[in-house]
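Example with several molecule types.
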Amino acid sequence: MTPGNLAPSESPAPSPGPLSGPQPANLGDILERVLDKGIVVAGDIRVNLLDIELLTIKLRLVIASLETAKQVGIDWWESDPWLSASAADRSRGRELEEENRQLRSRVRALERDEHNGG
Amino acid sequence: MAAEHHCVWLYAVTDDVGALPAGELAGIGAREVRALWVAGLAAIVSDVDLDEVTLRRNLEDLDWLESTARAHHAVIEAVGARCPVVPMRLATVYSCDAGVLTMLQDRAADLRDALSGVAACSEWGVKAFAAAPADPDPPEEGAVSRPGTAYLQRRRAQLSSHTHARHEAMAGARAVHAELSRLSVSARLYPPQAPGLTGQTAPMVLNAAYLVADERVDEFAATVNDLTGRHRSVRLGLTGPWPAYSFVGGHDRGDRP
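Resulting structure tokens for the full complex:
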């Protein structure tokens, strides 16, 4: 077994030691570092830190490399209510639809019971 | 007034007069990177056209995030190759140079501490993936006459071999981390990256960063190679050198994966 590059976007593991040359930085590794780490000083353009922390959590859960993420499908990002307001709206819309559907079917069931029982 | 304003993007802080390469260094949006000095500290910055709203929106745009993260990292890496740097989190943005200078003065003591903590060191990333379990032994001779039993035996052997491989990999990761921690000034554990998107079926069992003193880098790399030979339960990958992103925020040393 040889050490070396493991991300899919990188070349196969070189057989000499890993220090034979710097490996290209995997985007997932970069994002992990630039979003989550580094000293935090407050810029005066305020991006709610919470936004970045949520991003970071998503990246932790899902992302190894954006190239791969894009191949696999980008939906996780767009349909994630934490990250996208429109997705949150759509998600709430779906909840309402579902609730509506359940209520209608409940009403139908009650009406049927009334017919059958009455 | 235009919707987007001219702002100042902060990449890193250093205290070295030779921080910037002689030629022009391009930052986000190919804008020129410059240094702002106060109190013996330099803020590495460039101008950007952004405001709060576009910045927030852009952070949810994968393409923007990707190119910006790469550009942010490239500047920190270029400067970090020349002198110790304290990298800033992505999207540390000021409305003008004066805001950056005020921050430098206010945080001078923290920044100097952070700089001295990473001087003459580099960060190295090590990931470990669980190695594929060995195929279980073929069924014994007599079992062929009873295919159902043979199947169940094979299946049980397979499952236990997977469980065994996972346990071995976890133990391997702990041993690797312990040994590499001993060689490093400091260590930091990241959550393992998701298997579905690493493109690897093998689960990641260790995703660590190590702060290694310059004079021990060769020994560290040799040890990673050596550990690869000794721990067959994991496959190791080394990345670096990184600017010391993981070691400037006052984090505790991680002790176990």
